[in-house]
Sequence to fold (229 residues):
Amino acid sequence: MSRVLIVEDEISLASVLRRGFEAEGLRVDVAHDGAEGLRLALSEEYDVIVLDVMLPGLDGHRVCRAVRAAGLWTPILMLTARDGEYDEAEGLDTGADDYLSKPFSYLVLQARLRALLRRGGAARPATVEVGDLVLEPGSRRCTRAGTEIPLTAREFDLLAVLARRPGVAVSKGALLEEVWDLPADSDPNVVEVHVSALRRKLDQPFPQRLLHTARGIGYRLVPAAGAGT
Fold:
């Protein structure tokens, strides 16, 4: 029997969805805020997660990022009262598999849910590689050119966010949200301090620089020599 997690703060909607899914033979758990939804997503095994964006506490995008950062690839269908290409792109960029704007047709929701259940979760990648840099999320091990590099937990998390987007400039605000779970407009000094520490460990002992500053934006990992700013 497939198991579904609904994270939705509109109690009446969550109740309707629960009854509908259970009538189709699914096992259903419900959370009404982001923190509880994240707790369940990380502690239980689900075949699909239906996740609202506008949640009290942690919003759906932050929940989705945290689930993916934990290496869980359960299919996620995001629901939102927002509309437009930008919001859809933001939802998908956080790691969601599909996106549905409210109000929606329950028949469409059913069809998309069935599609995600058929697809299943992608296997967790054993390693993340950028050039000669290799990260192992399971063991939290980092090597470069075969040399092991000891990292603090926060340094590893910061590097992992950059490594999953090689060549892409990641803003300091995005790093604050994803690594420190802080608002994007928080003091960026904490990011700068940890980036400096990473540079000492990743770049100074090697002839090729990996960690580059994207001026006016943030940072990116670039495997090719001379790329970046």
